Amino acid sequence: MGDGFKLIQKNKKAYFNYEIIEELECGMELQGTEVKSVREGKCSFSDSYVTAKDLQLTLIGFLIQPYSHGNIFNHQSDRKRRLLAHRQEIKKFQRKVNEKGLTIVPLEIYLKGNLVKMKIALARGKNVHDKKEAIKERDAKIDARREIRELNKY
């Protein structure tokens, strides 16, 4: 990604539960101590999603814990946050969500320079069969790595 990139957190659950179709990098509209709390890694993707209405992307359910050295002006941890992207990109995502029944999920939150960025994606939910297939593939890769490691020991 270049210099000044620091991954804070990745939404592993989204990669498991959804088939990722198209990704987009967005800025986040944050208040007060939220940036400091994100830099400490005190955020959580638990059941978060993105809505696209009236040419605005809104992040819902994303938790940013209160800043540890904050005061009475600390932020509310579970508020809705606006995501910043170009109007054409928002229109495209909104159209695909309405036409094809896709959903928008947050994938990663990271620092790019001194800015907090979030990678979101258009996604389609996986079936149970697809999830089982993904588990089998992951286990096969782990076994292959283990065997290679054993062969390299001798």
Structural key phrases:
alpha+beta, about 150 residues, single chain, two-stranded antiparallel ribbon
In terms of per-residue confidence, which ranges show pLDDT below 50 for 5 or more consecutive residues?
none
Portion of residues within helices: 25-40%
SSE order: EHEHEEEEEHEEH
How would a textbook summarize the main sheet? 7 strands, antiparallel
Please give the order of strands in the largest beta sheet. Answer: 1-8-9-2-7-5-4
> What is the radius of gyration?
18 Å
Look at the helices and sheets and give the structural class.
alpha+beta
Extended strand count: 9
Round the mean pLDDT to the nearest integer and report it: 88
Summarize the structure in words.
The protein has helices at residues 12-17, 34-39, 87-100, 128-153, and strands at 5-10, 18-28, 43-44, 49-53, 56-60, 63-64, 81-84, 103-112, 115-125. With 154 residues, it is an alpha+beta fold. A hairpin with a 2-residue loop joins strand 4 (49-53) and strand 5. The longest helix has 26 residues, at 128-153.
